[in-house]
Amino acid sequence: MSFVMSSFEPESGGLDRQAQAWWVRLHSGQATRADAEAFRQWATRSAAHAQAWREVMRVWSALDPLLAEEAARQASRARGFSWASVSESLRSPGRRAFLGGAVAASVTAGVLAVDPPLGLWPSLGDLSADYRTATGEQRQVSLGQSVSVRMNTQTRINRIGGDAANPRGMELVAGEAEVVASGAGDFFVETGGGRLQARTARFNIRHTGPQVCVTCIDGRVTVSAGGEQRAIEAGRQVTYDGNGMREVVRADMAGVSSWRTGTLSFDSTPLSEVIAEINRYRPGKIFLRNEEMGRTLVRMQVSLRSIDNAPVMIRELYGARLRNLPGGIVVLS
């Protein structure tokens, strides 16, 4: 009897990331018997592998009702979603879960894999991108001889056109990147429904929500979105979203490049926005359960090397109550 090998292999890296990748695959509704066997071999390779898998499962079992509610709301787009059935499947990950049975039946089309509740593991889109960075990771990639891209945390990009060595452009699926183009021909970037084009330029693109922000650091960049077009030069910035493009403004260059220096600086920024930014760089997630406190204007600096200390800083500076849960989850109130 022949055995078909699994086509899925988690990326190299820490065992926690491999365990998360396996969770996504096994609960995607597309896992096969070969995947189940490959996972069994991975999980029994060492005590450390088994512990990494148990930690992924422990995160779910430790979620308090408030966080479980939030995860359920995020997954509510899936018809027939049942948090109870998902929780039961996670507590007892048996053979049906491996084959996409229990979880896939309760979450239509594997929504937990496509849009992971609480952002606790990579989505299928994350795993399929040509290049991606994990939470807190920065990465330098070369797209041919004339284009260099510095990727910030939680960023996904795909090559477009040309060939693998010399693409004509790229898609910024989500995240933030600094692009340096110095070729004889134009290089383009597609993101958030818009298109950027440059020949010799250095520019920063941030697409972490519905709005895209483009800052020209050097040279000249043409930005097109919603039937409009703007040309921006060094020190200028423009934003756009589904409602159209804004006017070109002078950029806060220090703020734009702060992620390259390894420090996050906040000056009169609402605490809710500060936490949202910190969550981009810190594994797990910080939740603020106090709307009034979220409106507090904050002045603070956080080193990316000690980003895990941010919740304690907020507690000490602004009097928040802090509760730690497994998986890097913190509740502030």
Automatic annotation (TrEMBL):
<dbReference type="InterPro" id="IPR006860">
    <property type="entry name" value="FecR"/>
</dbReference>
<dbReference type="Pfam" id="PF16220">
    <property type="entry name" value="DUF4880"/>
</dbReference>
<feature type="domain" description="FecR protein">
    <location>
        <begin position="130"/>
        <end position="221"/>
    </location>
</feature>
<feature type="domain" description="FecR N-terminal">
    <location>
        <begin position="17"/>
        <end position="58"/>
    </location>
</feature>
<dbReference type="Pfam" id="PF04773">
    <property type="entry name" value="FecR"/>
</dbReference>
<dbReference type="InterPro" id="IPR032623">
    <property type="entry name" value="FecR_N"/>
</dbReference>
<protein>
    <submittedName>
        <fullName>DUF4880 domain-containing protein</fullName>
    </submittedName>
</protein>
<dbReference type="GO" id="GO:0016989">
    <property type="term" value="F:sigma factor antagonist activity"/>
</dbReference>
<dbReference type="InterPro" id="IPR012373">
    <property type="entry name" value="Ferrdict_sens_TM"/>
</dbReference>
